[in-house]
């Protein structure tokens, strides 16, 4: 098992692909290039406008802060994200425009390459230890929205403070789960490598 603490001061800030906003990239795999398997970021939306197009990518957006947004996604009914941690999934190739409901927002953004990876996006209020059970081809990304996250029995890994992220890569199935202690609110992403999972189950 490999654990990395990603300090918020090292995240990459960049302009959206279509120039319509700012994204703070937390992590991606591979680490460089446009042909990612997965990419996790926080989007800052300061005005109404269109989202960038990402063919063959599955996306999920979760409201972190702000008065909320309305998403217009192709022919779907409009989607309102007006409560913190409310989320919605949509295909990256769909035409999407966004309308702010009450000022700028910050939104957690998960993108995975369809057929290569799939993701599960969760938000948790931490009231006790969190157990992550190792599974083949599965990684976890834990973003600390508030409070802190501490890896039990891993003094080599500094506590992740608000804004920081833990990237946990399970290389193989293990008998014991990873125990995380802490407080506050975490955004958790479970990432599964589709090809590696299929090979393990074959």
Automatic annotation (TrEMBL):
Per UniProt, what is one Pfam family of this protein? HutD
Q: Which InterPro entries match?
A: RmlC-like_jellyroll, RmlC_Cupin_sf, Uncharacterised_HutD/Ves
N-terminal signal peptide: none
Top-level taxon of origin: Bacteria
Alphabetized Gene3D superfamilies for the sequence: Jelly Rolls
PANTHER family (UniProt xref): PROTEIN VES (PTHR37943:SF1)
Q: What is this protein called?
A: HutD family protein
> Whose protein is this, by species?
Tahibacter aquaticus
* Lineage of the species this protein comes from: Bacteria, Pseudomonadati, Pseudomonadota, Gammaproteobacteria, Lysobacterales
